[in-house]
Design goal:
The protein has 105 residues and is mostly helical. It has four helices and no strands. The radius of gyration is 17 Å and the shape is elongated. It starts with a helix and ends with a helix.
């Protein structure tokens, strides 16, 4: 197994974890706290955000690691892939960064 395949597997795994987290958050957490009043909603969101930022190194590793792994896979793959492969991997990076990471940030 080459370095490109390894980085692609790691990127796929981490991006899949992020997708599962975002899906669970959208389907369970947001509808749940959406039933709260405005002040309670903000307070709940602040508490969850604090937990994520301060006490969850695994979450940060998954979230930031997915970007790093995807960029690494694109960089390594860019030299190994032909025209169509290059377009696909660059498209995948842009869709993930602009469609998942940017709106969340």
């Amino acid at each position: 197994m080459g370095i490109f395949q390894l980085t692609l597997i790691v990127a796929t795994f981490l991006c899949s974890l992020v997708a599962g987290f975002v899906f669970g958050f959208a389907v369970v957490v947001m509808p749940g706290i959406g039933n709260l009043g405005d002040g309670e909603f903000l307070r709940a969101f602040q508490v969850m955000d604090r937990v994520i930022q301060k006490n969850q190194p695994l979450f940060m590793l998954m979230w930031i690691g997915s970007v790093v792994a995807l960029l690494a896979a694109a960089a390594v793959g860019f030299g190994q892939l032909d025209g169509t492969g290059r377009v696909l991997i660059i498209t995948a990076v842009l869709v993930y960064l602009l469609g998942v990471q940017l709106p969340t940030a």
